[in-house]
Write a structure and sequence with these properties.
mainly alpha, Growth Hormone, Chain: A, globular
Length: 406
Amino acid sequence: MKLKSKFYDYFPALTHRNFRLFLSGQIISLIGTWMQNAALSWLVYSLTEDKFKLGLMNAVQFTPLFLFSLYSGVIVEKYSKRKLIIFTQSLQLIAATLLFILVYFKLIKYEHILIIMFGVGMVQALDNPARQSFVVEMVEGRKHLLNAIALNSATFNAARLVGPSVAGWIMSGLGEQWCFFLNAVSFVAVLAGLFMMRMEDKPTRTEVKNHTKDIVEGIKYIGKTPKLLYTFIAVAIIPTFTMNFNILIPILTRDVLGLEEAAYGTLLSAVGLGALVGALSVAAKAKKERAVIYQMTGAFGLSLFLLLMRFVRNYYLALGLLVLCGFFMIMFNTTSNSVLQFNSPDTMRGRIMSVYTLVFGGLTPIGSLYAGSISKKFGVDNTFMISGLIGFTGFMILFLRRRELK
């Protein structure tokens, strides 16, 4: 009993049944998602041998987040978040099944991938703010919110650790199509968890009169709240230009290290391992009052180790540095998310988290095109260095504004 009590002292969010159900489904589903992400990047680079087209594929997937995220925030506040997530997860199951069929029957073309990933991006523009703002409902308030966000990140990155590595072995032995098939099957787990939850499916707001006016109201609130504003500025810079591992790692694997699928999966998993350890550390140790310190530490550490990636020519050194990049990356991401949610009124959380989706994911096309173009012109090693230097800019914004953030 003491051991169980101690466990819940570190991870109190797990005392909530609905959150446990969500997390259990997520870990299975996200392993499938990371398998699909790894398989897609490898498939596109194998089909095209073009670094820019690899970046373009990622840009196309995230463009809908840029176009539609703000309106999604109003929808999230208007309807039941649980029902919205059931809808979006079902559509992603269909997309993964379609990819499996096209690859299995050797009908896949680069253009097909662009169309499907644009569709997935449209679904994620609604899914992301719904899931982000759903966490506070599952843990019934703010008391265990930071712990829940960190555990959610830990789940995401546990999957990031397992998924690419498994994908590498499946691709080398059976082919990319089976990664897409397993991803489709994995969505059943998260859907089952959502259907088993016991909760009132109430919207945050019963009346939404003017979508545009509501969006403007949310943006104005961010502008006059320094804790939100400067966090958003840092989130616009750091994830956009420093977290392009899915584009840079396949290039690093083949062009710099001269290795194949299994090594590629392991290198991607190294980022996941570091991120998992980072997320669990934040979950167990971080307090609301120290969130900004962890946020700055994450920004600094990620930028530093990206700079060191410039000099990598050894597989094992690459593994070590990518673990450290993952650790500090998730420290920044988790605490930035929690700072935003702690300072969001319940009636605006959907809109504020939709801006987070816009900034964190919607600017990814810019980051993807940046990474693909810069690596094509200057090489992947210099791209890591430039990304690290840009990351330091985001860190300095947080450091110089640290008093307002606290």
